[in-house]
Amino acid sequence: MNNNAYFAAAGAIIAVFCGGALERNALWRDPVQLRQDMVRKSPHKARVYGALSEIYQARGAYELALQNLDQMLLIEPANAGAYSNRGNVLLSMGRPIEALSDYNKALTLRPALAAAYVGRGTILNQQGKIDAAIEDFHRAAAIDPNLAEAYYNSGNAYARKGAYDKAVQEYSRAISIDPYLKEAYDNRGNSYLRLGLTDLAERDRRRANDQAAAAR
């Protein structure tokens, strides 16, 4: 091989490797493309559909998240976490009846799934079944004492019931676990206001505003 042919061949090899590297870098930069690539390479693995659905859900692309969870459940029909996650997506899409069915299915498969109790309790609270909702939130907290959402939603249920002192306790517990939970400051402030504790209500309003400003 003469020098010109050698360098041409070497250049072609470098171009192939560089092109492959650029393609891989593009995949790694976009998590959706990365997960889609994983689906293409492993179409029979349930977890890749679950990972892709989480990204779509975080981006508000609920229909795509739902499609991937449907596919995940076709592969693993006894996956309690997938039913719970699909319930979350359906709830975000304004389809609470279907969401409730998925949460119930998740809890049938795995009775100690805290997230499913939170989801089901949220729907029960929306339906006005406040005591049943509180019971679900307490179950979730008993399973996972560090689940801030359980205490936050329990606070919402107590506030809806008019038990503002208990609501304050629940919101405070949520904040102790997640000090950046803006909604808990907002709602605790409203409960303080209902209790006539205007100074504490104003303090929480400022904290909520600070959280909102920090998130921008």
Write the layout of secondary structure elements.
Blueprint: H1 3-29, H2 31-41, H3 46-58, H4 62-75, H5 80-92, H6 96-109, H7 114-126, H8 130-143, H9 148-161, H10 164-177, H11 182-194, H12 198-215
Helix pairs in contact: 1-2, 2-3, 3-4, 4-5, 5-6, 5-7, 6-7, 7-8, 7-9, 8-9, 9-10, 9-11, 10-11, 11-12
Folded structure, characterized:
The protein is mostly helical and 216 residues long. It has a domain at 112-216: Alpha Horseshoe (Serine Threonine Protein Phosphatase 5, Tetratricopeptide repeat). Helix content is 82%, strand content 0%. The chain has twelve helices and no strands. The longest helix is centred in the first third of the chain and has 27 residues, at 3-29. It is globular, with a radius of gyration of 24 Å. The termini are far apart. The model is unreliable at 5-28 (pLDDT under 50).
